[in-house]
Structure formats: C-alpha cells, structure tokens
Write a structure and sequence with these properties.
By secondary structure, chain A is mainly alpha-helical. Chain A has helices at 25-81, 101-132, 137-151, 154-176, 186-210, 214-222, 227-256, 259-265, 282-289, 296-329. Chain B folds into two domains: 2-43; 48-276, Orthogonal Bundle (MetI-like fold), CATH 1.10.3720.10. Classes of the chains: A mainly alpha, B mainly alpha, C alpha/beta. Chains in contact: A-B, A-C, B-C.
C-alpha cells in the first residue's frame, strides 16, 4: 500500500485498498459496508470536533456579547450625562436628574460592612476545618452546614430578613437611639449579606490552610510552639495571599448580590448619611426601577450601572483567581 | 519565670481554640434560625389546594401557588435543556484542549460568566430577547441557561480532567472514532461528576429571581405558554413577601418551603451521587 | 565514665494498631554522637520523633513505656519543656520562608514569646551561626530571606535555629539525605564539633555516614533495637547476625 498518498482526513475511496479475504459476494458486501461505516464515522468525528470548538468559542462570544450590550446601551447615558453622572448625588428620574453616587455609596458600604462582619466567622471556619479538625463527623457537619448557607436562594434570605431580621434591627436601632428606627436600611442589608457571604471565604480559606506544608509546622512544634503559635506564626503568614483571595471572592459575591439586599434596603435613592438610613445599591435600583424606566436616558443610566457592576465584579474575581493560581503553583 | 509564662501560653492556646470553635459554630445559628422559620411557617401551608390553585385576589381567603409552581418547573426544565448540552460539550472541549488560545480565552470567559451578577444577566437578556420578542418564559429560561453554563462547563471539565488518558487511548487503540470514545467510554465513567455539576447548576438557578424580573415577569394565572409571561416561585416570594395581606404572606411562606425543599433535595442528592458513584480509578 | 542523658525503658510506639517501635531499651550517653540506622520502615524515625514528642501530633499515634532525660520522665513534662531541651533538625531543610535569616535563627525565641533585648538577640544569632560555620557566609545578608541559600546552607541554618535555643540534645532525622555530597560533608564536619556542647542523635539510612560520624550506633530492625554498641565494634565485629547481614548489604 502506498502510504505517501494517504493523508489524515483526505482518504478517498479509490486509494483505500479493500482487503478481501474471500471473493464471495456476501463477504465483499460486508467489507464494503464496513468501509462505508468508517467513512461515516470519520465524517461524524470531524463534525463533532468542530462542534466542540464552536461550543468553546460560544462562551467567549457570550461574554463579549454581554459586555458589548452593556456598553452600547450605556452610550446614550454617557453621552448626555457625562462622567460626572457617577458622582452626582441626586437621583430624580421624574425631573430628569440622574446621579449614581447614592448607589455607589450604598453598594460599597453594604458590601464592605458585610465583609468586615463576616471575616472573623469565615476565618474561624477555615481554621477549624483546615487545621484543627480536617476529618470527623463534627467538622463534616459544619462543612455541610456552611455549604448549605451558600445553597439557600437569596430571595429566601430576603424574605426571612424582612420577616425576622428587620424587626430585630428595628428594636436594636431604637435602643441605639437612631432618628428613625425603621429596621430596613443599610445595617439590615449588611447583616443579611454578611451571613450569605461567609461560605466563600471559608471554603477557599480552608483549602489554602490545608496546603500549608507540614514540615514547616513541625519545625515550629519542634522549637516548642503551641498550636495557636504555630497557626499565628506559620500557617497564617504562609496562607496570607490565599486568604486574601478568599476575601476577594466574598467581596465579589457581596457586590453583585441583588434580591436579599433589594428586599431589605428600603428602595430609597437618596444618599445615605448613616447605617440606619434607607438606601439603594446599584443592583437594587436596577431591580426596582428597570421595568418602569420609561425614558431612554433613564434606561441607559441604569444600564450604565449594570456595566459598572459587571466590570467591578469581573475585575475582583479575576484578581482573586490569579492569586489562587499563583499560590497553588508555587 | 519560665514556668509561669508557659502556663500563660498554654492557656492562650486553649483560649484561641475555644474562640475559633465558638465563631465557627456561630455561623450555623442564622442558618438554623432561617430553616426553622421557613419550615415551621411553610409546612402548614402545604395541601392539595395550595399546590393546585392560583392565588386569589386580595382579601379573599384561599388560593395556592399552582401558577408559580408550574412556571418554575417549566422555566427550569427548559433552561436545563438548553444549558446541559452546550455546557457538557464546552466542558469536553476544555478538558480535551489544555493549551491553545481559544481554550485559554474560553476558560477565562467561563470564569467571568460565573461571577457576573444575576441582575446584569437579566437586563442583557431583556435587550437580547424581550425587546424583539416580548416578555416570555422562554426568555427567562435563556437567561437562567446563561447562568447555568459556567457551572456545567466547569464541573464537566474538572471531572473529565481527572480521568486518566489511558482510558481514551484504549478506545482509540480499538479503532473507535473520537465521538464514540467520548460518549461510550469517557462520559459514562464521568457520569457522577457531570451529573452533580448539572444538579448543582439546577439548584442554583431554581432560586434565582433577578433574571426573571425582566424576562418572564410574572403571571397571575396558570399558564403553560412558554412564549408568554409566566410566574415562578422566586417571583411569587419576592412579590408577596412585602405584602400586607396575610393570605399572600402565607403563600410566600409555603412557596419558600417548597423552594427550599427542592434546593436542599438537589444538594443532598448531589452529595449522595458523588459518594456512591465515585469511580475507583 | 560516661553519664547518661536519655534513657528508654520498654518503650513502644504505634500508629493505631500498627506497632512500629517494640520494647526499646537504650541509654544515650552525654556529649556523644549516636547514629540510629536500619532499613526503611524499621521504626528508627518514629523512635526519634518520640524523644521530642513530635510523634503524638499525628492523629491515632500512641506510645508507652519510659523515656527520661536527666532522669526526668519526658512524658510527664509538658511537650513545650521537652522541646526546649531537645531540638530537632528535619530531613528537608525547612527555614521559615517568610522570615529573614536573622529572624529564622531566633525564631524559637519569638515563637515561645521569650523576650530578649536586641543586643542579646544579636549575640545569639552570631553565636548560633558561628557554631554551624555559617556566620562568615551570611553575616552581610542577615536581613535577606533564606531562599538564596544552597541546600547545605539552609540545613545549617536549621541547625543554627535549633542550636539557638541552647538545648541539651539535638535530634537529626536523616539530615543529609536531601543534600548533595559537598553539603553533606560540611554538615557531617559539624557533628564532630557540635558534640562538645550537645548530645547528637542522628537517624540515617546511610551506613557509611553512621560509620563516619558516630561514637555509638544503634541498629533497628522491624521495630526492635537489635544491637547497640561502639561504632567501631559494630561495624567490624557485630554480635547479631541481622546486624551482620545489614552491614554486609544482604538487605538494606
């Protein structure tokens, strides 16, 4: 057989010799059908490989499409409101006044407050599961419980917060002497957000802590350190960047969270002056006002908020992933 | 001098451990609180009437969540039907191609997509589908499918990456074409991983509200028409949670219970599957 | 007349149901180098880690019997005190990666919360690094992290870190198995000088090393202490046939 003329996908019928064992018509027919099936399979295989590539490219197209849509739909707002839209403090679509600052402040304050509240708890879970009890029924229970926190839909968190958390916060605010103790507002949103965000830093922190090489821990024990001292002087410094990435992941989640915050924050588009005030985040104002936005500039202004949300969460998640990749490849 | 400071350090050691345990288990308290509340308030709502009737107008007693239940099931099923094939094929693509420009960017975009806030997906889907074709359950399914994709792709990729290459090579050595190797050898072995990824994705989108706000909208009547507006459990909960009417609030509790049960069931099944079907390689 | 510093009587150690160290009776003399050798899995490393109570950190690990230092029962003291008297150097050099060379040497003090004035700290660092023949090589880069040091230098840094705590005994767990031959010989030279001030117990799977550096050798096989004698006698005229077989290379 002359193989020089046979290339991978260019096998033509004439070049493929038929290996005929005997020359009965049935045997020849069987061999021919086998060859036909092989060609069919090669064609299907090519089609399949191509469709895989299409699916791979589809993800890229999807993301680019989302980005493009956000940008294109924000253009009217950027054109007519300019860049100072982002730091103007008044949002009054009825009178054609648009200013995103109240939402930026609302988003940042709720997210960072939630982060600060949740970090000690996430860290405790990470240390407990990563260092003290990596195996056993009790840590398994905790691990599943924390994963469950992430599984509960955010609208259920919102509902519970409205029914239970807000009254609690209301009485707390009365005790603390707030001007208008309503319960809803920045504080309540931050609290429910803090609960929702715990699992992200906790699970990443746990895997990072488990990666600490035991030789380093043993060196510290060998010098006479207690377990707490080993955690403080060896494990935490070693996993510093990994823990930071976990916190970034939690932050990304907090920034993008919509439903629970929307149901609790009070839908007020004024700049909040204290954590007891009602307010809005970028996500919640979109949720509340998008369907009723009648003017093109109104819609576009909201789309611009969506664009900001998209860019910020993407950047934070990317930084977090980069840190993790660098940490696990060291 | 030495003895006292060591006692102090030992004390600090136990103190820290106690502190860690307190904070760690404190996380479970809000969860238990929430679960207890939903279950206790919701379970009393469940009856045949609740599951088969639509909400009554304001003030009238009775009513149920039938439209939301049917709507959620339809929307989620269609979203899954859309997302699963694309997601699995995308995962296969990424696991087969570790290096190269397209796989690199595809992987990055998958990660990006996973982090996009659900409300952003909602408004983008509005412009892609609702503007030209109107509000519909289908548009909601598409938005949810977009959210499902990264989860399915990632878990498929991770599952398949774990399989040894000798499995594939054995197939090729027998003269099998690529697509047969994938569907007859690789995927069956990786079923548990892929299935758990799918179930987790379904659990995740079952509870999503934001994308549906601008796509499927809601519907006070029981509808089977996927080309029209449709109600869903999360939307019902969202609408009725802040209502002043007890009947509607009760419906929201019941719906929360059903939704929570569904999500928990899926998560539990996922854990069982990964434990039971873990293939010994 | 040698005085004994560490004594083991009927000492046993296990990992769960796996009995790894069986009924060891041994007297370790002061200021000598004791080599502990044997084939892989014979329990020598486990025994070593029982001396400074690192063994019990592993979940499921147990031990029984008597182990004393200066006639004080090691297992009735708090592990911290044990480890202040008995230092350890590990198989892979493991200086703390986030600390400078200077901070690595006095890491023991920082970890134990022992406050030392700066002048005293400088003295300790110089003293320990000189003891391991590293001072001249690093004295100008004390504030740099130790990652640029060679394997041998890193291992000597770890020895300096242990020496800084002024222990009475130094345990070495296959200290040169991860090093190249030149680094190995620099570390072996150290053993000879260190024994003036410390007692050294060195676990090694390298017979030639045991013959080169030690005064007495203990031979472990399948968890038992088979023979323990002067190194010269051990290697020329062993009393047990198992020792004989090991030395002549019948098994390793």
């Amino acid at each position: 057989m002359d193989t020089s003329s046979v290339k991978n996908s260019a096998i033509t019928r004439s070049e493929l010799p038929l290996r005929v064992i005997n020359s009965t018509p049935e045997a020849i027919a069987k061999a021919k059908s086998r060859v036909r099936r092989s060609f069919r399979q090669i064609r299907t295989e090519t089609v399949f490989r191509q469709s895989l590539i299409i699916m791979g490219g589809f993800m890229v197209v999807l993301v680019l499409g989302i980005l493009l849509t956000l940008i294109v739909k924000s253009v009217p707002s950027i054109k007519s409101l300019g860049i100072k839209y982002l730091w103007s403090g008044t949002w009054d679509p009825v009178h054609d006044i648009y200013g995103a600052a109240p939402f930026l402040v609302g988003t940042l304050v709720t997210s960072f407050l939630a982060l600060i509240i949740s970090i000690p708890f996430s860290l405790a879970v990470a240390i407990f599961l990563g260092e003290y009890y990596p195996k056993g029924w009790l840590p398994n229970f905790l691990k599943n419980a924390v994963e469950l926190i992430a599984a509960v839909p955010s609208v259920i968190y919102g509902f519970w917060a409205v029914a239970v958390l807000v009254p609690i916060v209301r009485s707390l605010e009365t005790h603390l002497g707030a001007r208008q103790p309503i319960g809803n507002g920045i504080l309540a949103s931050s609290l429910i957000l803090a609960v929702m965000v715990i699992p992200y830093a906790a699970s990443l922190g746990r895997s990072m802590i488990q990666l600490t090489p035991s030789v380093l821990k043993e060196a510290a024990y060998g010098l006479g350190a207690t377990r707490w001292e080993v955690i403080r002087s060896v494990i935490l410094p070693y996993t510093k960047s990994g823990l930071f990435a976990g916190i970034l992941l939690s932050l990304g989640r907090a920034l993008g969270e919509t439903m629970a915050v929307t149901m609790v924050i009070g839908n007020t588009s004024k700049m909040p002056s204290s954590i007891f005030d009602l307010g809005n985040t970028m996500a919640s104002v979109i949720a509340n006002e998008f369907v009723e936005a009648d003017k093109p500039v109104y819609v576009s202004a909201l789309m611009e908020l969506g664009l900001v949300l998209f860019l910020v969460t993407v950047v934070i998640n990317m930084i977090g992933k980069k840190i993790i990749d660098r940490f696990t490849n060291d | 001098m030495e003895i006292r400071s060591v006692k102090y350090r030992i004390g600090k050691n136990y103190g820290f451990k106690a502190l860690v345990m307190i904070f760690a288990f404190a996380c479970v308290i809000p969860l238990l609180f929430i679960l207890f509340f939903i279950v206790s308030k919701g379970i009393t709502q469940i009856n045949w009437h609740f599951l088969t009737k639509v909400p009554k107008p304001v003030g009238e007693p009775g009513g149920g969540i039938a439209n939301a239940l049917v709507g959620s099931i339809l929307i989620v099923v269609i979203a899954a039907v859309i997302a699963i094939p694309i997601g699995i094929l995308g995962g296969i693509y990424l696991s087969e191609n570790r290096k190269g420009r397209l796989p690199y960017w595809s992987r990055i975009c998958t990660d990006v997509l996973q982090g996009v806030p659900s409300i952003v997906i909602g408004i983008v889907a509005y412009f892609w589908i609702v503007k030209p074709f109107g509000f519909s359950a289908l548009s909601g399914s598409i938005a949810l499918a977009i959210m499902m994709l990264p989860i399915v792709v990632r878990s498929t990729e991770e599952t398949l990456k774990l399989l040894p290459s000798s499995l594939q090579e054995a197939g090729f050595a027998l003269g099998m074409p690529f697509h047969r190797v994938i569907f007859k050898i690789i995927i069956p072995v990786g079923t548990s991983g892929i299935l758990s990824g799918v179930m987790l994705a379904v659990a995740r989108i079952s509870g999503e509200t934001a994308p549906l706000l601008f796509t499927a909208l809601g519907n006070n009547y029981l509808s089977w028409n996927i080309f029209g507006t449709m109600h869903s459990l999360p939307k019902l909960i969202y609408d009725y949670s802040t209502s002043a009417y007890d009947e509607w609030k009760n419906l929201a509790w019941g719906a929360s219970f059903v939704l929570l049960l569904w999500v928990l069931l899926l998560n539990l099944l996922t854990k069982l599957i990964t434990r039971k079907w873990k293939v010994q390689l | 007349m040698e005085s004994t510093i560490i004594k083991s009587r009927n000492f046993n150690a296990s990992f769960g149901t796996n009995h790894v160290v069986k009924n060891v009776n041994i007297d370790i003399p002061r200021n000598k180098v004791i080599a502990v050798m044997g084939p892989s899995g014979c329990g020598k490393t486990t025994y070593l880690r029982c001396i400074n109570r690192l063994h019990e950190l592993i979940p499921g690990a147990t031990s029984s019997g008597e182990m004393t230092i200066n006639d004080e029962n090691i297992y009735q003291m708090h592990p911290i005190f044990v480890r202040l008297k008995i230092g350890m150097v590990f198989q892979r050099p493991n200086p703390f990666p986030n600390l400078s060379i200077y901070d690595n040497v006095i890491a023991g003090y920082k970890l134990n919360g022992i406050k030392v004035p700066k002048a005293e700290r400088d003295r300790i660092v110089e003293f320990s690094l000189t003891r391991v023949a590293l001072w001249n090589e690093v004295k100008d880069s004390l504030n740099k992290k130790g990652s640029f040091l060679s394997g041998g230098q890193q291992q000597r840094l770890c020895i300096a870190r242990a020496v800084a705590m002024e222990p009475e005994v130094l345990l070495f767990d296959e200290p040169t198995s991860a090093l190249d031959p030149i680094s190995t010989s620099t570390v072996e030279e150290l053993f000879h000088e260190l024994k003036t001030n410390y007692t050294l117990i060195i676990v090694t799977h390298n017979m030639q090393q045991a013959a080169r550096v030690s005064d007495k050798t203990a031979f472990f096989y399948l968890g038992e202490l088979v023979e323990y004698d002067e190194t010269k006698i051990m290697f020329t005229n062993p009393k047990d046939s198992r020792t004989q077989n090991y030395i002549t290379g019948r098994f390793s």
